Amino acid sequence: MVPKENQIRRRLKRYEVTPRRDKHVITGAENPHGSIFSFLTLRAQILVLLSERMASRPEICRELGETADKVRYEMDVLRKASPPLIELVHEKPVRGTVEKFYRATTKAYLDPSEWPGVPGAVKAGMRGSLLDLLVDDAVAAVDEGRFDSLENAHMSWTPMILDEQGWGDLTAILLRAMEEAIKVKDDSAERLIDNDAEGISCTVSILGYPSVNENRKVGPSSGRKGSTRKAAPEHRKSSDK
């Protein structure tokens, strides 16, 4: 029986790039505005995997179907980046040797304060790759009957018309939700490690963006600020003669 292709490899395979574009891949010092979703080479695939969970080099080789030499080289680049994008977090004796486990550092994520300095062309590539990944991952979950396999799976689409203050409030809520979700992930990881247990593979996707619709009002014009315009009374013909 042919083993089922692992999820990481399947959902990232379409983003593997040609050697001509390798100069753009995430390297830390060479690309300070890199993202785990910018150009999904083997290096970025490793970073995605280690953002999801801790893993050892042999586990990464098996998961991504790559040779030990290739994985070792890419992990060394990530570990020696300034600042480091992965870190050693655990060591386990295995048959006379030590198996080392790594995970992505917080520097593997692009800080919101750095985003305005990212070139427009790079932003577009990062957004496009992330959106493709997000959609493909969600569609696969629906197709394979996983999306609603647990209660309270969430999917919503809420178009809005906001003023500048509302946009600021909304983006603050989304950032806070992402930070709290990452904390939930980290807390879960500690409990799973303590209990030597398997966890539930799940994904949280957050989008908040200006839509392609033109700017428009949310209601009828009210004239001067604070005033309310009433409908004109209906005129009737008098029956008096």
SSE order and pairing:
Blueprint: H1 7-12, H2 42-52, E1 55-56, H3 57-64, H4 68-80, E2 86-94, E3 97-104, H5 120-143, H6 164-195
Task: Describe it.
By secondary structure, the chain is mainly alpha-helical. A 3-stranded antiparallel β-sheet has the order 1-3-2. It contains 6 helices and 3 strands; from the N terminus they run H-H-E-H-H-E-E-H-H. It has a domain of 110 residues: Arc Repressor Mutant, subunit A, CATH 1.10.10.10. The termini are far apart.
CATH 4th-level superfamily of the domain at 7-116? Winged helix-like DNA-binding domain superfamily/Winged helix DNA-binding domain
Note the run of SSEs as H and E: HHEHHEEHH
Uncertain segments of ≥5 residues (pLDDT<50)?
14-39, 235-241
The total strand number stands at: 3
Write a brief structural summary:
The protein is mainly α and 241 residues long.
Task: Write out key terms for the chains shown.
Arc Repressor Mutant, subunit A, disordered C terminus, elongated, three-stranded antiparallel sheet, 3 strands, 241 residues, single chain, mainly alpha
